[in-house]
Amino acid sequence: MKLTVIHSAILLSLIPATATFAGGLDRSGQSISAFLQPGNYAEAGISVLDPTVKGSSTVPGLEGEKISDMAEDYYFPSAAIKVQATDKISLGLIYDQPFGANSQYASTAGSFGDGIKGTSVEVKTNNLTALIGYQPTENWNFYAGPVWQTVEADISLRGKAYSKDIATLSGYNIKVDQKDAYGWLAGFAYQIPEIALKAAVTYRSEIKHDAKSKETSNLYAPAGTLLPVTIDLRNINSDVEAITPQSVNIDLQSGITQNTLAFANLRWVHWDNFVVSPKLLSHPLINQNLIDYSDDQYSATVGLSHKFNSKWAGTAAVGYDSGAGNPVTTLGPTEGYWSVGLGGQYSPAEDYFIQAGVKYFWLGDATAQTGGKAKADFEDNHAIGYGMKIGYRF
C-alpha cells in the first residue's frame, strides 16, 4: 500500500484553510508538516477568515443593547522550504503568523463606542523557524532549531463598558512597537512509508517580548478632586511584557486503503495565566489587565484524504477547539469552536500541486468582561475560512 510521493502531499496541511478563530490569540496552528515532506520541497500559501461575532450588552443601564458584528476579516500568508542536504541531514525554514487579533466595534455611543470611535484591536506577529533534522534511519527523524518572532499591537478602548469605579478607561489607547525575540523548538517523527504511517511530536518554547509601548488616556485629576495627590495618566511611555505561550503539536496519519489516508492533529497551547498588563493599567487607580486568559487551549482535527486519480485528491475534516477560558476579553469574545472543512488538490505534474479548501466554524458562546466584571454576552456566532497553497518538489 505504498503511496506515491505526490499522494503523500495530500496531508501537507490537512486542509489549507487553516486560519482559525481559536483559543487565545492562536491563528496558524504552527504546523511543521512541510519540513517532514520527503526530498526537497517548497510551498507558499494564504489563508483568509471571515468571522461574524455579535452580542448584547450587560453594562448597567445598557442591558440588552445590541452589539453589531465586531470581528474584522483577516488574512495571513505562509511559506516554507525544506532541503534534504544529505541522506541523514535535512534543513528547513518556515514562515507563518502564529498569533493575532483584529476587531472593530461600532462607533455608536454605548457599551463599546463613544460616538466618535469604537473599541478596536489589532495584534500582529511574524514567525520564522529554522530547522535542522537528523534521520539516523529511514523511519526516524529528530529535529530542532531556533525561532525568531516579532509582535506589535494597536488597541483602543471606548464606551461605558470600560468604566471602573471613579475612573473610566474609555479613551485609553496603547500602541506597542514591533519587537523581536527568540525561542526554540524540538521534536521527533516516526514513519513507515510502505503504509503511509507518520507520527510527529513537536514542542515550541514560550517567547518573552519586552517591547516599547505608548499609552494615552483621559485619566487626569488634580490634587483634592479624587485623591490627595495629582493623578496624571494621560501619557506614559514604558516597556510592556508579553510572553507568547509554549505549545505541543502531535500529527498522526496512516493509510487505510491504497488511496485513502486517515489523519489527526492534536494541539496544546499554554494560555493558562497568560497576562498582558501595561504600566498605566497597573496603576492602583485602575489595577486591571489589558488581556488575560484563564485556561489552556486544547484542539483537535481529524479527517480523511482520498486520491481519486493521478491528478485529483480531496480531504474532509472535523475540528474542535476548547478556547482559553470563559469569561473572555472584550477584544476577542468567543470561546473555541467546532468546525468542518473540505479541501481539494490538483496535481498537473508529479513535481507540483495546487491545494484549495474551505472551513465553516461554529464559534463558542462567551461572556466578555473588563475589570473582572461581565459586560456583554456573545452567542450563536460563526466564521468561514478559505485557503490556497502551491507546493513544489525539486
Summarize the structure in words.
A 14-stranded antiparallel beta barrel has the order 1-4-5-7-8-11-12-17-18-21-22-24-25-28. The longest helix has 4 residues, at 5-8. 1% of the residues lie in helices and 58% in strands. The protein has a single domain, classed as Outer membrane protein transport protein (OMPP1/FadL/TodX) (Porin), CATH 2.40.160. The chain has one helix at residues 5-8; strands at residues 41-52, 55-57, 66-67, 74-84, 89-96, 101-104, 120-134, 140-157, 163-164, 167-168, 172-192, 197-204, 207-216, 220-221, 231-232, 235-244, 247-257, 260-269, 275-276, 291-292, 297-307, 312-321, 328-329, 337-349, 352-363, 366-370, 373-378, 381-393. By secondary structure, the chain is mainly β.
